[in-house]
Amino acid sequence: MGAALHIDKFPGGTLKNSLVQFQKTAEYETQLQDNLATFIDKQTLTALQNLELFADLYGVPDARGRIEELLDLVGLLPRAFEPVRAFSHGMAQRLGIARLLLHRPSLLLLDEPTAGLDAAGAALLDRVVADGASVVLVTHDLERAVRVAARVMVLRAGRVRLERATAGLDAAAFRAEYEREMQ
What residue spans define the domains of the chain? Predict the structure, then answer.
């Protein structure tokens, strides 16, 4: 069995109508979305078209309103009609944040999410992390983790070495404890 994906102008149709669907498993859908994200980021779709495509895949109600809200949130609303390939790395990262939030997930898995973001983009991500969804954040930026998380955990060789609530936790003291533990 297999799947075929044809990306075209879709006169009167949607991407869903252009997919040959088969045994849709969670793994298949995740792989498809990852492959689409890679393909789309390198092509001529605009930021708006990019998010419309994913809104269609996710079945986002009132997609246009949600897309405009997110483009405004990430500072890309004025650039909505520009092709993604013309975006800087940081702008593409911001678009990725918008795509991440598009379907209002209840859990976010973020691996070094501030890589490639400028200070404003990183601050935006901090606000997103603090806004409702449960977040698993993998980072080497201990100070950011202490600032935005309710709990921090340090793993070494697959084992928990440190775990602390962040309320009242001094970031410098936590870093010193981390460095002692990692020796």
Answer: 21-104
